[in-house]
Amino acid sequence: MRSLARLRCVLPLLAVLLVAAPMAALAVDDPAEMLPDPREEARAEAIGAQLRCLVCQNESIEDSSAGLARDLRKVVREHVAKGESDRQIIDWMVARYGNFIRLSPPITISTLLLWGMPLLALLVGVIAALRVFRRRSTPESAPLSEEERARLDEVRRDA
Amino acid sequence: MSDEQQRNNVTRRRLMMGLPLVGAGVCGVAFWKMLSGMQTGAFNPHDINAPVTGRPVPDFTLVDQPPGTGFAAADLRTLKSPVLINFFASWCIPCIAEMQALLDLQKQVPIWGVAYKDKPENAAGLLKHAGNPYARIGSDREGRVAIDWGVSGVPESFLIAPGGLIVWHSAAGLDNEDVRTSLNAALTKVAR
């Protein structure tokens, strides 16, 4: 009974932790990192979400807890506080780390195939579908010859 | 159904069976090449920041890291002979692994070290134990200079040509045979 009572004390705490855990995972490591102005902070987070963490490579710097990601988050916030535009900040990062730091790569000659792939796939699909439909609408076989018709009539009579 | 149609159908069926197999085969070979390249060091997924090569060194100033003296962009811009810049840290195992290679290499080209996000006493301790291959050493305690160089992790090395142009870069340790071969090629090119 005593352990049950203890459990009853722990349960609300567990509930709070369960709710708080995913919230903590979304935010930056340390609230001290955040900008005091919530609008500027939101803008910094939006920029950071477009930048690749170069250590983990498949996470944005906002999601990663790598040391370099933390440093880059700090840099983004400094530039936001200085009043730079999103474009300026992303260009600053690209100048140092190349287009690889952008999670969504810009359309260039080398990424044309990547960006054009959905359209290309749609085109191939439409052409394939059209060909299948056209074949279905045309008769499968040539009309029966005189001889075949006579044979068919014969079979029908017998049945 | 005519003979020709039947033959066409068989070809189509064979294609439908074969194409996915061929696709899987090509992917398999590509993955195998990538993974074996990662093992030998020929392919390094972290070796990404090519943008700095071919550019002049960025502006920076590094304070002294004992037992060496720090340096700044101006020191590299007034160079008369090439210098290898090596970002390292005492907490970085691959950096410790490449120390012997650096000690050999410094007979060939002077190496200037940058202690990346390291406590000065820890970096000094490493150099006392492993030996000091560096002609000059600066401390980048906050890691901000490294960002301007496009460093994504340690060790990372840059070859600076006279005049301060970055001509070669590697994000892999210099204890790797392929990396050293590529550095030697860059060095002969600079000497010419």
From TrEMBL, chain A:
* Pfam families given in the database record: CcmH
Report the function annotation for this chain.
Required for the biogenesis of c-type cytochromes. Possible subunit of a heme lyase.
Predominant location category: membrane
Keywords attached to this entry: Cytochrome c-type biogenesis, Heme, Iron, Membrane, Metal-binding, Signal, Transmembrane, Transmembrane helix
Domain of life, per UniProt, equals Bacteria
Give this protein's Gene Ontology molecular function annotations.
metal ion binding
> Transmembrane ranges?
112-133
Does this entry carry the keyword Nuclease? Answer: no
Question: What organism, scientifically named, is this protein from?
Answer: Acetobacter estunensis
Q: Quick one: a GO cellular component term?
A: plasma membrane
Domain CcmH/CycL/Ccl2/NrfF N-terminal: where? 16-154
What are its GO biological-process terms?
A: cytochrome complex assembly
Stated name of the protein: Cytochrome c-type biogenesis protein
The record's InterPro entries line, in alphabetical order, gives: C-type_cytochrome_biogenesis (IPR051263), CcmH/CycL/Ccl2/NrfF_N (IPR005616), CcmH/CycL/NrfF/Ccl2_sf (IPR038297)
Give the membrane topology, semicolon-separated if more than one: Single-pass membrane protein
TrEMBL record, chain B:
Q: What is its main location?
A: other
Gene Ontology CC annotations of this record: outer membrane-bounded periplasmic space
The answer to keyword Transmembrane helix applying to this record is yes
Residue ranges of every copy of the Thioredoxin domain listed in the record: 51-188
Q: Has UniProt tagged this entry with the keyword Zinc?
A: no
Segments spanning the bilayer are 15-35
Concerning NCBIfam families, the annotation shows: dsbE
**What name has this protein been given in UniProt?**
DsbE family thiol:disulfide interchange protein
- State the species of origin: Acetobacter estunensis
